[in-house]
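User: Predict the structure for this protein chain, please.
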Amino acid sequence: MTHQTRPDSIRSFCIAMGVVCLLSGCATAVSTNGPKQDSPEDAAAAYTRLGKAYLAENNLPRAQQALEHALDLDANDSGALEGLALLYQRQQEFELADRFFQQALKADSEATRIRNNYAALLYQRGEYAKACEQLRIASQDITYTNRAQLFANLGQCEMTHGDATAARQYYERALDIDARNGRSLLALARIDHTQGNNERAWERLQRYFTVAGTNAESLKLASDIASAQGDSTRAAFYRQQLGGS
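Assistant: Here is the predicted structure, written as structure tokens:
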């Protein structure tokens, strides 16, 4: 992975890590009246939901107010701590974000979603070894709904960190869990092509086309594989498709 393409990779990685899905999943109609619950813990949880709803709407001042109020009610509310970490990450306050992610994991060390989002922050900061370690821990949670995506994230992390062997292992693991994981199919096709195994690369790429269709990245890879196999007609076809994409 070159330095020129890394910024796009970081953005795509953070999206893939599920941070956007987390926030959108929390987005509900935001009331201007604070929630009222019987116990401090219930009230804290309600303010955490409110804060994350504001965060999903990119209303950072109100999000911060609600999340901090949640922590006033329950200093160990892991969701509120995570919410502030995400807020500071969005504001490019990375040291504060790191601190709050660590506090959130201290409050709930079994929270795989929080660990996944912390890994996204570490990856964004270029701390690839630490990001991969957090993802390795997260991937051990066999009950996590998006476990295949976790392994795909781990594969990308290891690839960026320079370990293609480990990356292949984790992408394969993602496909063991979900045979239609498009990210892993495309990544493995790219690895196979780079390592000269173009027949297997082509087979994986065809599976990717079936699952996800075509895009600029996959069309370019198709053209490159065809060229490597000496099929100039097929290579030209995919280059033409790439020009029209």
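The two ends are 23 Å apart (CA to CA).
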